[in-house]
Specification:
A 4-stranded mixed beta sheet has the order 2-5-3-4. The protein folds into 2 domains: 207 residues, no CATH class; 118 residues, 60s Ribosomal Protein L30, Chain: A, CATH 3.30.1330. 41% of the residues lie in helices and 6% in strands. Helix 10 links the parallel strand 3 and strand 4. Helix 2 runs parallel beside helix 4, helix 3 packs antiparallel against helix 4 and helix 5 packs antiparallel against helix 6. The protein is α/β, with parallel strands linked by helices and 387 residues long. This is OmpA family protein.
Length: 387
């Protein structure tokens, strides 16, 4: 899989309100209205509402066949949105000459849906979104939410968001399998936002629709994904829940007794841990020891002083200092990822020295085996003001 490109990064940002169809098409500002791409033959007076990539002939051909169905109503809307999302995924997964397995399978899913739409057989299509062979099941809570929405009276108002979220969950888990949490995080967050939007739209779809979804039980990750390492599609029952399952109960989740700290700070122009920072990290070590399946990403930051290149190197050294201490205390290195952010995401404060001190930091993002970020707290016990 490719690393995040500027165009894909724009896709991530836009998914909070709309899903941007990268190099193929985009969604309209109204997330229920899918819009067709602009081709080279369009009149110069045409309002450009989409992006077209004629070099990817496979995706472009399927996209052209999909255009007539983009603004359908009923279940056709759900399937058209899902086909468009599969094409987005396929477009990201390389070219026709270097097609990945994920691209081939995503294209196959899109073509199957489009063919059914063309033949007027959308109602015969399954509402179950398959897990590709390069992916796995993560975020069971979001998958369960999607399945429950399909049985909800307000589903007709949330079909596009549910379809997009399901494909994005497949994509996110595949990225996580190959590249880790740092490369899948934005996709998971986008899927979460789409499900939140779907809930909101479903609950406001009419005066008499239920305002919440039941809590359901579902299989364990091992039952769903199997015991073999890596991603190989679904090994257990799928979908994660169906109306035939009569048991409706709350899932028991293990949560931390106390929120864990998510930041340590550094002195001016330093990447050395203070004793106060070590005390904070010892709390984190205890948490990670108690939760051996959790992973974390360390993001290093600096204040705004010095140039960009220097600060990128300094922020990396800070993240590496935290990583080194954690591994010395027994945390496996394969549970830790690091990223240098330099002098970005500066923290403002009415006291400029305090703002700079708060900016000189390493932030820790913890993820459970499902791909969920856990509750954390910011601490400032180890703040070091410049003299």
């Amino acid at each position: 899989m490719k690393y995040v490109t500027p165009a894909l990064r724009q896709f991530y940002r836009g998914a909070a309100t709309v899903a941007v169809y990268w190099s193929v098409m985009v969604w309209a500002e109204n997330p229920d209205q899918l819009v067709a791409p602009v081709t080279a033959q369009d009149s110069p007076n045409t309002v450009q509402t989409g992006i077209y990539n004629p070099k990817d002939q496979q995706v472009a051909a399927l996209q052209a066949r999909l255009v007539p169905f983009l603004n359908e109503q009923g279940v056709e809307r759900y399937h058209a949105a899902k086909a468009a999302a599969w094409l987005t995924y396929a477009a990201h997964e390389g070219s026709e000459k270097s097609a990945t397995v994920a691209r081939k399978e995503a294209l196959a899913q899109a073509e199957m849906i489009i063919a059914a739409l063309e033949q007027g057989q959308a109602k015969q299509l399954s509402l179950t979104t398959p897990i590709l062979s390069t992916s796995s099941v993560m975020r069971r809570d979001l998958w369960a939410n999607a399945e429950l929405l399909k049985q909800h009276a307000g589903f007709s108002c949330a079909q596009s968001q549910v379809a997009q979220a399901e494909v994005m969950l497949v994509w996110a888990a595949a990225e996580h399998c190959e590249l880790g949490w740092r490369h899948s995080r934005e996709l998971f967050l986008s899927a979460q936002r789409l499900i939140d939007q779907a809930d909101s739209r479903a609950f406001s779809c009419g005066a008499d629709v239920p305002q919440q979804l039941p809590k359901i039980s579902y299989p364990s990750l091992q039952e769903l994904n199997g015991s073999e390492q890596g991603c190989h599609g679904v090994a257990g029952p799928w979908p994660i829940w169906s109306p035939q399952q009569k048991t409706v109960i709350s899932e028991n989740r293990q949560v931390a007794d106390q929120p864990v700290p998510n930041v340590v700070h550094f002195a001016l122009d330093q990447a050395v841990l203070s004793q106060d920072s070590i005390n904070v990290l010892n709390q984190i070590v205890n948490f990670l020891t108690a939760h051996p399946a959790y992973t974390l990403t360390l993001y290093g930051f600096t204040d705004q002083q010095a140039n960009e290149q220097y600060n990128l190197k300094l922020s990396l050294r800070r993240a590496q200092a935290v990583s080194q201490y954690l591994t010395q205390q027994g945390v496996a290195l394969n549970r830790i990822a690091t990223e240098a952010k330099g002098k970005t995401q500066l923290i403002e404060n009415e006291n400029p020295k305090m703002g700079r001190a708060l900016s000189r930091r390493v932030e820790l993002v913890y993820v459970d085996p499902e791909g969920r970020e856990i509750q954390t707290i910011r601490q400032n016990q180890d703040i070091q003001l410049e003299r």
